[in-house]
Write a structure and sequence with these properties.
Elements lengths: L1 H13 L1 H21 L14 H12 L9 E7 L9 H14 L5 E5 L13 E8 L8 H16 L3 E6 L11 H17 L2 H29 L3 H31 L4 H28 L7 H32 L8 H9 L10 H11 L1 H16 L7 E2 L11 H13 L7 E6 L6 H13 L4 E4 L3 E2 L5 E8 L6 H21 L2 E5 L1 H35 L3 H26 L15 E2 L2 H29 L4 H28 L7 H33 L8 H6 L8 H17 L1
Parallel strand pairs: 5-11
Antiparallel strand pairs: 1-3, 1-4, 2-3, 6-9, 6-10, 7-9, 8-9
Helix pairs in contact: 1-2, 1-9, 1-10, 2-7, 2-10, 4-5, 6-7, 6-20, 7-8, 7-10, 8-9, 8-10, 8-20, 9-10, 9-17, 9-19, 12-20, 12-21, 13-18, 13-21, 15-16, 17-18, 17-19, 18-19, 18-21, 19-20, 19-21, 20-21
Protein name: Membrane protein
InterPro entries: MMPL_dom, Mycobact_MmpL, SSD
GO cellular component, one term: plasma membrane
C-alpha cells in the first residue's frame, strides 16, 4: 500500500492543477445541488420491530386521512388570577381563538376545549389541540405566524397563552461556538507548524471536504429523508477528521523535507507513510459509523452513513488534494526544525540537540510503566462512576429551556391536568380477528382502569369499519418516570390476557411507549454492535500492526475512554454538574441514542490516534530498534502532532456545544471529553506503559497467521526498497 500511495502522492503533486480542478468542480457541483434541493425536514422517526411502531403503522392503515405524521400544537390558556376559563369573557376569547386557528390552509382539525371537556378541575387552565396536514419542518411560515398571532390576540385579551407541540419546531443551529472551535484549531496549527501557509492547508482542505459532504447531504436530504441534524453531525465529524488527516500528511511532508528530499519526493513519501495510517484510521471510523445500521433504527443508520461518507471524502482529500496544494505552496512550507536551525546558526557555538517533550515523556513512562498504568486506569475509572447512574430518554417539551413557549405550555399542562398529561399513552385495540369487537374494546378499557398509576381512560374510539379502536390513557406520573414505564408494561401484560380471551390484540404507542421501546432496542443492540465493530476493527488492526496484543490493548483502552466520557455526560446533562457553564438549562435523562452513537464514533476516533502513534513505533521496531527505544522514537516523531490533532478535534467538537439541538450539544460535549481521555490518558500514557511492560511480546504474531495475513506495508518497507534501487542507479551512473 505504501508504494501505491507514494505514487499517488507524487502524481497529485505533479498534476496539481488537474487535481485541484477536480475537487473544485466536485465542490461546485455539490453546492449547486444543495442550493436547488428542497429543504430538509424532520426525518421520519420509525423504529422497526417495536410494538409502538407496529401500533403507529396500524393507525395509519385503519384510520386513513388522520395525518398521523402531521404537526400538532397545543394552545394552552390560563385565566387571570381569581377568574376561571369557564367565565363568559374568557370562554368567548378562547372560542374566537379556536375559530382563527381553524382558518389556516394547512390545518387538518382544531379541538375546542369546551366541546372536548379539557378544562382543569379548578377551571383555571384549558387547551385547544390543533392538527396539521404536514410535519412541523414542512409548515409554511405563514401558518406558524397565524398560530402565534392567534395566541397573541388571546394574550391581549388578558389570558396567559403558551404553545406546545412540534408545530413551532425550528431547524437546529450551532451558534458562534463552532466558529470559535475552528479558530482554536487554526491557532494550534500555526503553533505546530510555525507557518501560516502550512497551518492553512489542513483548514482549507477540511473545509472543502466538509463543504462537499454537507452539500451532498443537503442535496439528497429530501429524497433520502435525512433530517437537519444529520448534516450537523457530518460537519462535526468531517471537520475534526479532515483537519487531523491533513495535519498528519503535512507533518510527515515537513519531516521528509528535513531529511533532504526534494519536494515532490517528500510529498510522495508523506502520502506513502502517513497516508497509509490515514487510510486505516479512516477505515476504522467508517466501519464504526456504518456499523450503526446493526441497531436497525433508520434515523441512526442514515446519520452514521452520512458521517461515514464525509470521513471517506476527508481521506481522499488528504491523499490527493493535500499533496497538490503542497505543490502550490512550494518553499512557503518549511522543513521540520527549520526555525531551530536558523536560531542555532545565529548563535556563536552550535548547541546540542535538546530532546523534545514527547521524547522526555516517553522516556519517563518507559522507566515507570506500572505506576503510569495504574494511575491512568484509576483516573478513568473514577470518571466513569457516574455512568452507573445513566438514565435514557427521548427529548420532549419538558427538556426545552424554561424561557420557551413550548416549555411553559408543558408546565401549564402539568399544573392543570397532572404530570402524566404531557405523556399520554395511546392504546390501539385490533379486534379484526375478534367475534365481538365492541366487547373486546370494553374489556381492554376496563382492564386498564384497574391498573395502578392511571388517572384517565377515555372511552374506546372505533374506526369506521368498527374493527379497531383507540383508547387514550393518562398516567399519574411524568412521562420519563419509572412508574409510567411500569404502567406501559402492565397494559401490555393485560392486553395479552385479553387476547387470549377475545382474540383482540392490544398495542401501546405514543411518545412515552416509543421511548421505552427505543431504549430497549438500543440496549439489545449494544452487544452485537460492539462485537461487529470491534471485531472488524480488531482484524483490521492485526493486519496493520501484525500483532495480537496491540489491537487488544487498543480495544480495552477505548472501553475506558468511552466509559469515562459517558460518566462526564451523565454528570453534566443528568446530574447538572457545570450545567450552567455548558449552557444546559434543563437536566434530565441522557438521549437514548447517545451511548451507542458515542461508542461508534469514539471507537473510530480512538483508533485514529492508535494508528497514527503506534505505526511510528512499529516502523522504528521493524527497522531494528529495541521495543523500549521504539516507543521513545514513536513519541519523538508523533507526540507533538498527535497532541495538536487531539486539541484540534476537541476544539471542533466543543464548538458544537453551543447548538440549539440537545442531541448535537450532548454529542459535541461527549466527543470532546472522549478525545481528551483517549488521546491524553489512554494513547499518551496507557499505551506506552502497556507496550513497555510487554516488551517484544507486544509485537508477537503466530507464524501461521503472519503468513496468512496480507502485507499492507504501513511501515513503508517498499519505500526503503526504492531507496536501495535509487542508490544502485546512482552508483551505476558513477
Amino acid at each position: 500500500m505504501a508504494t501505491m500511495l507514494y505514487k499517488l502522492g507524487r502524481l497529485a503533486f505533479r498534476r496539481r492543477h488537474l487535481v485541484a480542478l477536480i475537487w473544485v468542480a466536485l465542490l461546485t457541483l455539490a453546492g449547486v445541488g444543495a442550493a436547488s434541493a428542497p429543504p430538509a425536514g424532520n426525518t421520519s422517526f420509525s423504529i422497526p420491530g417495536t410494538e409502538a411502531q407496529k401500533a403507529f403503522d396500524l393507525l395509519e392503515q385503519r384510520f386513513p386521512g388522520q395525518s398521523a405524521d402531521g404537526a400538532t400544537a397545543r394552545v394552552v390558556f390560563k385565566a387571570p388570577g381569581g377568574e376561571k376559563m369557564t367565565d363568559a369573557g374568557n370562554k368567548a376569547t378562547v372560542e374566537k381563538t379556536v375559530a382563527d386557528l381553524a382558518d389556516g390552509s394547512e390545518v387538518a382539525s382544531v379541538a375546542d376545549p369546551y366541546q372536548g371537556k379539557v378544562v382543569s378541575k379548578d377551571g383555571t387552565i384549558a387547551y385547544a389541540s390543533v392538527k396539521y396536514d404536514v410535519s412541523g419542518m414542512e409548515l409554511e411560515e405563514s401558518t406558524k405566524d397565524a398560530l402565534e398571532a392567534a395566541a397573541q390576540q388571546a394574550r391581549e385579551a388578558g389570558l396567559t397563552v403558551e404553545i406546545g407541540g412540534d408545530a413551532l419546531a425550528a431547524a437546529p443551529h450551532t451558534g458562534a461556538t463552532e466558529v470559535i472551535g475552528i479558530a482554536v484549531a487554526a491557532v494550534v496549527l500555526v503553533i505546530t507548524f510555525g507557518s501560516l501557509v502550512a497551518a492553512g492547508l489542513p483548514l482549507l482542505t477540511a473545509l472543502i471536504g466538509v463543504g462537499i459532504g454537507v452539500s451532498s447531504i443537503t442535496a439528497l436530504a429530501s429524497a433520502l429523508d435525512l433530517g437537519s441534524t444529520t448534516s450537523i453531525l457530518a460537519m462535526m465529524i468531517g471537520l475534526a477528521v479532515g483537519i487531523d488527516y491533513a495535519l498528519f500528511i503535512v507533518s510527515r511532508y515537513r519531516a521528509e523535507l528535513a531529511e533532504g528530499r526534494d519536494r515532490e519526493e517528500a510529498a510522495g513519501r508523506a502520502a506513502g507513510t502517513a497516508g497509509s495510517a490515514v487510510v486505516f484510521a479512516g477505515l476504522t471510523v467508517v466501519i464504526a459509523l456504518v456499523g450503526l445500521a446493526v441497531v436497525n433504527i433508520p434515523m441512526l443508520t442514515k446519520m452514521g452513513v452520512a458521517a461515514a461518507g464525509t470521513v471517506a471524502i476527508a481521506v481522499l482529500i488528504a491523499l490527493t488534494l493535500v499533496p497538490a496544494l503542497l505543490g502550490y505552496a512550494g518553499r512557503r512550507v518549511k522543513p521540520a526544525g527549520a526555525r531551530r536551525e536558523r536560531r542555532g546558526a545565529r548563535e556563536s557555538a552550535p548547541q546540542p540537540a535538546k530532546a523534545n517533550m514527547g521524547t522526555r515523556w516517553a522516556s519517563f513512562v518507559v522507566r515507570r510503566p506500572l505506576a503510569v498504568l495504574l494511575l491512568g486506569v484509576i483516573g478513568l475509572g473514577a470518571a466513569a462512576i457516574p455512568a452507573a447512574s445513566l438514565e435514557l430518554g427521548l427529548p420532549d417539551d419538558g427538556s426545552q429551556p424554561t424561557d420557551t413557549t413550548q416549555r411553559r405550555a408543558y408546565d401549564l399542562l402539568s399544573e392543570g391536568f397532572g404530570p402524566g398529561f404531557n405523556g399520554p399513552l395511546m392504546v390501539v385495540v385490533d379486534a379484526k380477528g375478534s367475534k365481538d369487537p365492541d366487547a373486546a374494546f370494553t374489556k381492554v378499557s376496563d382492564e386498564i382502569k384497574d391498573l395502578k398509576d392511571v388517572v384517565t381512560v377515555t372511552p374506546p374510539a372505533p374506526n369506521k369499519a368498527g374493527d379497531t379502536a383507540t383508547i387514550t390513557v393518562v398516567p399519574d406520573s411524568k412521562p420519563s418516570s419509572v412508574a409510567t414505564e411500569d404502567l406501559v408494561h402492565a397494559i401490555r401484560d393485560a392486553g395479552a390476557d385479553v387476547r387470549a380471551g377475545t382474540g383482540a390484540e392490544t398495542l401501546v404507542t405514543g411518545s412515552t411507549a416509543m421511548n421505552i421501546d427505543v431504549s430497549q432496542k438500543l440496549n439489545d443492540a449494544l452487544i452485537p454492535y460492539l462485537v461487529l465493530v470491534v471485531g472488524l476493527a480488531f482484524l483490521l488492526l492485526i493486519v496493520v500492526f501484525r500483532s495480537i496484543l496491540v489491537p487488544l490493548k487498543a480495544a480495552l483502552g477505548f472501553l475506558l475512554s468511552v466509559l469515562g466520557a459517558l460518566g462526564a455526560v451523565v454528570a453534566v446533562f443528568q446530574w447538572g454538574w457545570l450545567a450552567g457553564l455548558m449552557g444546559v438549562e434543563e437536566t434530565g435523562p441522557v438521549m437514548s441514542m447517545m451511548p451507542i452513537f458515542m461508542v461508534g464514533v469514539v471507537f473510530g476516533l480512538a483508533m485514529d490516534y492508535e494508528v497514527f502513534l503506534v505505526t511510528r513505533m512499529r516502523e522504528a521496531y521493524v527497522h531494528g530498534e529495541s521495543p523500549s527505544q521504539a516507543i521513545v522514537t514513536g513519541f519523538k516523531h508523533g507526540a507533538r502532532v498527535v497532541t495538536a490533532a487531539a486539541v484540534i478535534m476537541m476544539a471542533v467538537f466543543a464548538g458544537f456545544i453551543g447548538s440549539s439541538e440537545s442531541m448535537v450539544k450532548m454529542i459535541g460535549f461527549g466527543l470532546a471529553v472522549a478525545v481528551l481521555f483517549d488521546a491524553f490518558v489512554v494513547r499518551m500514557a496507557l499505551v506506552p506503559a502497556v507496550l513497555a511492560l510487554l516488551g517484544k511480546r507486544a509485537w508477537w504474531l503466530p507464524k501461521w497467521l503472519d503468513r496468512a495475513l496480507p502485507n499492507v506495508d504501513v511501515e513503508g518497507e517498499g519505500l526503503k526498497a526504492l531507496d536501495t534501487r535509487e542508490k544502485d542507479r546512482d552508483l551505476a551512473r558513477v
